[in-house]
Structure formats: C-alpha cells, structure tokens
Write a structure and sequence with these properties.
- The chain is mostly helical.
C-alpha cells in the first residue's frame, strides 16, 4: 500500500472531524463544573477514572471546598477521604493541594490561562491543561490525547506513535484549530 501524503492525511482528518461533528453536534466535556478551578480539579480526578465517577465525587467535593484557598488549606487526610472513590486518591489529593497552593502563591488565586503556567501546577500535564484551556477559557492550543484518542488516532492511521507526548504534535499538524472545541479539547 503506498504511503499517504501529508496533504491526503490532512484532508482525510478534516473529513473524519466533519463526520464526528455531524454525528455528535452537541458534543461537550462530560465533567460537571461551574468555573475553571472546578474543571481543573475534576480533570485531575479523571485520571484512571470514569467521568461518571468523577461527577459523583465532585458533587460533594465542590460543596465542601468552595474556593482555591479551601483546597490549598485542606488537611491532606481529609481531602484524601473526600476523593477516595476516584482511585489513586493519595496522589490525586497531593496534586490538587499542590496545584491550589501554586495558584494562590503565584497566580493571585486565579487558574492560569496559558499552557506554560498550567503545566507548572502540581498534577497538571498537557492533557489536563488542554482540557482546562479549551473548555473553561475557549483557548485551543493543543489536542487532548487520552487513551481513546491515542488508540483511535493509531487505528485511523493518523499516527503510528503510541506515546501521547508524540501523538499530540502529530495530531496538531492535522487538526485545524478552528475545528470547534470538542475536536481539539474534549
């Protein structure tokens, strides 16, 4: 089978995106949140966890912890218990607390609006930063590469890479930034 040119692959990608937008016109982030901080916390919790479970955990969590200061000042054992059912609760609690402390100390209590600043927060990598930027701020700078995107991008022949760090730039070359929030950030 002849190798596909970049132009042909980009055209095929645009058709895939158009098909997805037609099939799922109301696609949106499934995590429940009311502000950028809540989305950041929910996204940290979503690692190795279903959105449904995260939404169950955050329903009570966001009633108890209402501000970035609440998360920054939370007693770690209490926060761990509050998120226990989301799995990996010790690491997630440390990440949430560290991110909140950094937001308070370095960002005036506001969730940063740049990739560079977000990935400096505890527990935040490019995937989480892309989710927050795209859904909370409507800023598309990358592609969220989760397990599903990685698997489908390989299956569709958009990349042969298996490493999300390598898959994201490959997809960024193929996915137009103006493809809508869910094609680039959900």
């Amino acid at each position: 089978m002849p190798r596909e040119s970049f132009e042909a692959k980009a055209a095929r990608t645009r058709k895939i995106i158009a098909g997805l937008q037609q099939a799922y016109p109301t696609a949106h982030c499934e995590l429940n949140y009311s502000n950028p901080l809540e989305l950041l916390i929910a996204t940290i919790l979503s690692a190795q966890c279903t959105d449904k479970r995260v939404n169950l955990v955050t329903a009570d969590l966001f009633k108890k912890y209402r501000s970035v200061h609440d998360f920054a000042n939370a007693a770690l054992p209490a926060l761990e218990q509050d998120i226990r059912t989301a799995g990996f609760y010790r690491n997630k609690a440390k990440s949430i607390k560290a991110a909140a402390q950094s937001i308070v100390a370095h960002h005036g209590g506001e969730v940063p609006r740049t990739m560079e600043q977000l990935i400096e927060l505890g527990g935040v990598g490019r995937k989480t930063a892309n989710v927050v930027l795209g859904n909370a701020f409507d800023i598309n700078v990358g592609v969220v590469v989760d397990t599903h995107v990685a698997r489908l991008s390989q299956r569709l022949g958009l990349t042969a890479d298996r490493d999300p760090v390598k898959i994201e730039p490959a997809l960024m070359k193929l996915v137009p930034r103006n493809s809508g929030p869910c094609s680039a950030t959900c």
